[in-house]
Automatic annotation (TrEMBL):
<feature type="transmembrane region" description="Helical">
    <location>
        <begin position="6"/>
        <end position="27"/>
    </location>
</feature>
<protein>
    <recommendedName>
        <fullName>AEC family transporter</fullName>
    </recommendedName>
</protein>
<dbReference type="GO" id="GO:0016020">
    <property type="term" value="C:membrane"/>
</dbReference>
<feature type="transmembrane region" description="Helical">
    <location>
        <begin position="123"/>
        <end position="143"/>
    </location>
</feature>
<keyword id="KW-1133">Transmembrane helix</keyword>
<feature type="transmembrane region" description="Helical">
    <location>
        <begin position="34"/>
        <end position="55"/>
    </location>
</feature>
<dbReference type="Pfam" id="PF03547">
    <property type="entry name" value="Mem_trans"/>
</dbReference>
<feature type="transmembrane region" description="Helical">
    <location>
        <begin position="287"/>
        <end position="306"/>
    </location>
</feature>
<keyword id="KW-0812">Transmembrane</keyword>
<keyword id="KW-0813">Transport</keyword>
<keyword id="KW-0472">Membrane</keyword>
<keyword id="KW-1003">Cell membrane</keyword>
<dbReference type="InterPro" id="IPR004776">
    <property type="entry name" value="Mem_transp_PIN-like"/>
</dbReference>
<dbReference type="GO" id="GO:0055085">
    <property type="term" value="P:transmembrane transport"/>
</dbReference>
<feature type="transmembrane region" description="Helical">
    <location>
        <begin position="61"/>
        <end position="82"/>
    </location>
</feature>
<feature type="transmembrane region" description="Helical">
    <location>
        <begin position="164"/>
        <end position="183"/>
    </location>
</feature>
<feature type="transmembrane region" description="Helical">
    <location>
        <begin position="94"/>
        <end position="117"/>
    </location>
</feature>
Length: 307
């Protein structure tokens, strides 16, 4: 349990640094935009190359991944249905909302939680790969299309992800993992240095936005925020448990790993995407805040019940 608390405390303190810098007027929203762009175009792609090159990509084919996929589909699907029918959101806003409701923080929080709560960081690898190689490229394709007025053809929609820096970084990492190739030190060292900047840049930018942006729940629909937070914290892990336990017959430590991973909060990089494309950034910001706080008791409860 100490690992869960340590992971959340670390994230909270770095976010607080960003908020403090904004409060002291050392930085402004312009700095938040710069940090988000650096994270999106440079640091995160470098991090993906390094992270995925060291991962076992064959784990993405694990049968247990079906439960995680089902949980994502249900959570995102419910939000998409409500966003289109009730709140009448555009494609870009709907995409960010769906990500907020289903895209877990499998990297900078999931890895320490998997290490300390589950005993092995490899448990988070399937979800990490699913998000990086499937969910994120698909979402970025829709965001790109929406940014261009939705006039893209299906061919453009399908091919645009491979021109996105995050997707290219992920694909490069997968190729290195599958082939077993190692980058020369002259390349790996600067990539590692740039990748180390990704998570701090995201968190500091997020802290700046918390301090200088609209107050919690003051922009957009409160009902929409409650929906994304509830889907992420309660619905997604519940669906993961049902599919894994009842339909697939998974039990023991493997079941705990699936449910804990699904209960992780919304990833900070969703806010980076929202800022980059100027779509539903306040919804993403607020959902990340609420789910990061709320995930602590949820994961502790799951660990107590299934551990």
């Amino acid at each position: 349990m100490q690992g869960v608390l340590n992971g959340f405390t670390t994230i909270g303190l770095v976010i607080a640094v960003g908020a403090l810098l904004a409060h002291l007027r050392i930085v402004d929203l312009g700095a938040q935009q710069v940090l988000s762009r650096i994270a999106f175009f440079v640091a995160s792609p470098a991090l993906m190359v390094i992270t995925l090159s060291r991962a076992d990509v064959h784990q993405v084919l694990s049968a247990n991944l079906g439960a995680s996929v089902a949980a994502v589909v249900v959570a995102a699907g419910i939000y998409i249905a409500l966003a289109r029918a009730v709140w009448h959101r555009r494609m870009g806003e709907t995409t960010i909302g769906a990500l907020s409701a289903s895209y877990v923080n499998a990297g900078n929080l999931g890895i320490p939680v998997a290490s300390y709560v589950l005993g092995d960081a490899a448990f988070v690898a399937p979800t990490l790969l699913l998000q990086l190689l499937v969910l994120q490229p698909l979402a970025l394709a829709f965001l790109d299309a929406d940014a261009r007025g939705g006039r893209s053809s299906w061919w453009q929609l399908l091919t645009r992800p491979v021109r996105n820096p995050l997707t290219l970084g992920s694909l490069a990492g997968v190729v290195l993992s599958i082939t077993g190739w190692s980058l020369p030190t002259v390349v790996a060292a600067p990539l590692g240095l740039l990748g180390d900047m990704a998570v701090p840049a995201m968190l500091v930018a997020y802290g700046i936005a918390l301090r200088l942006g609209p107050g919690l729940g003051r922009a957009g629909s409160v009902a929409e925020l409650v929906t994304t937070s509830t889907l992420k914290l309660l619905v997604q892990p519940a669906v993961a448990w049902f599919v894994a336990s009842v339909l697939l017959g998974v039990d023991g430590h493997a079941l705990l790993a699936i449910v804990v991973t699904s209960a992780l909060p919304t990833a900070q990089n969703i806010f980076v995407h929202a800022t980059r494309y100027d779509r539903a950034s306040v919804l993403a910001r607020d959902t990340i805040l609420i789910t990061t706080i709320g995930a602590v008791p949820v994961i502790l409860l799951v660990a107590a019940l299934l551990g």
